[in-house]
Amino acid sequence: MDSVKDLITPAPILLQPPQAKIAACLRQHGPLSRTDIADITGYSRSTITTVVNELTDAGILEEIGDGESSGGRRPRVVSFRPDFGYIIAVDMGATGLDLAIADFNAAMLERVSLPIDVRDGAAPILGLIHRLAIDLLEHNGIPPEKIYAFGIGVPGPVDFAAGILNSPPIMPGWDAYPIRAFFRTAFPNAVVIVDNDVNMMALGELAAGSGRRHENFIFVKVGTGIGCGIVARGEIYRGSTGSAGDIGHICADKNGPMCHCGNIGCLEAIAAGPAIAHRAAEAALAGRSQILKKYYEQCGGQLTAVEVGRAAAEGDKVANEIVRDSGYIIGEVLAGLVNFFNPSLILIGGGVSHIGLLFLSSIRSGILTRSLPLSTRHLRIDTSVLAQDAGLIGATALALTNVFSEER
Asked: DSSP class of residue 299?
């Protein structure tokens, strides 16, 4: 992934190659003793001592205590100095926003969540993010100049090289909007990374979730839309233009409903949160389900997939059918990826993933029915353990990856 640093704004902290390698080692593995750093990097003990001292004198690293002893004196452990600099991480969905401040050890200091509507446009939403970030910085006594990286996940196809959205179907007014330039103006010392929200979630699982034990896995977000982040050989696979994983616009039924992208029968037009809610509302209004009708009236006609999941949990046959159908057709589409990519893990996340075990079991059924036996022999299919934190953790991890660059 030598390309990533060449594709984004220049990293704010320039290091010599040994310094950059040791910083990357600590970023990946967390606090380590000098002996551990030497074993991982291959540098001599004397080089490690020299470089660690240089980075400590620069205020980047610090000794935080004693590590485990293998005999003799306990070794001192080296870590990033938490107050050297900070990261802003943003996970933006179509209807909700999470923002956090993290230190160089990826520890979140504070986070905030609130509802949004991306259809309001780029300038209002990005302005809101800027105000939220400034409020959190002031609350924690951090000057904007101490922000060295800004990672933001957005719910649409991203040209990763340019840091812009490319014709996002559900985000009018966002196409080619200069997100990176907007935040570089607000935080002049920060490298700004923009990626698809599901890629950020996959990176979160790779850094701190179930993906740590898998080199090849898929993270699927089911919410307002449907998309997936693909991890291949331990790295995000974005494809040639950054649109890899946009499974929500695979045709799942050529006779299906019109999608907001303009095509017919796209997966997310059939099985995403709004489609689930729409089917349930039709059933409620037609009198086919008294339980769904009850929820429909309680919500003032604004049903969501959450209420459909509750109705299914109460034993409502129509709600169960809707949840089962949606999960199964998602599984059928994922089966194509399983046969093609052969991952060892599929993680299901996003708001709709929490509507009940029936949804997950139906996805599993669709995958296992339509995949080759060899492709699923060692395949694990589960929900995300990080839940709502996955995107923030991934945005933090990707931002930290690009804080340091090597002198050339």
From this structure: T
Question: Residues 246, 250, 251, CA angle at the centre, nearest 5°?
Answer: 165
Taking alpha carbons only, the member of 56, 60, 57, 63 closest to residue 78 is 63
pLDDT on residue 405: 75
The CA dihedral of 128, 203, 306, 314, to the nearest 10 degrees, is: -160
- How far apart are the C-alpha atoms of 209 and 201, rounded to whole Å? 10
8 A C-beta contact, residue 296 and residue 281: yes
How many residues are given for the chain? 408
> For the whole model, what pTM was predicted?
0.93
Of the listed ranges 274-278, 324-328, 404-408, the one predicted with least confidence: 404-408
pLDDT at 55 > cutoff 70: yes
Sheet holding 380-383, edge to edge: 235-237, 226-232, 217-222, 345-349, 380-383
- Helix (H) or strand (E) holding 159, with range, is strand 158-159
What are the structural domains of the chain? Answer: 3-83 (1.10.10.10), 86-204+390-403 (3.30.420.40), 213-384 (3.30.420.40)
Cα-Cα-Cα-Cα dihedral of 296, 299, 303, 308, to 10°? Answer: -70
**Which ranges of 314-347 would DSSP assign to H, the alpha helix?**
317-341
CA atoms within 13 A on the CB side of 129: 32
Q: What residue type is assigned to position 36 of the chain?
A: D
User: Could you tell me the two tokens for 241?
Assistant: 């233009």
Q: Which residues of 179-191 are buried (b: 16+ CB within 10 A; e: fewer)?
A: bbebbbebbebbb
Backbone angles phi, psi at 130, to 5 degrees: -60, -45
Residue 363 confidence (pLDDT): 99
Using CA atoms, how far residue 90 sits from 36, 157, 187, 334, in Å, is 33, 16, 14, 27
The identity of residue 358, as a single letter, is L
Residue 120: other Cβ atoms inside 10 A: 13
Q: Which residue has the tokens 């074993």?
A: 39
Mean pLDDT of the chain: 94
In 3-state terms the chain splits into helix, strand, coil percentages (rounded to 5) of 45, 20, 30
| Residue 96 CA: distances (Å) to CA of 129, 153, 216, 350 | 12, 12, 29, 11
Strand partners, 92: 97
The closest alpha carbon to 43, from 67, 11, 73, 20, belongs to 20
Q: How far apart are CA 219 and CA 131, in angstroms?
A: 31
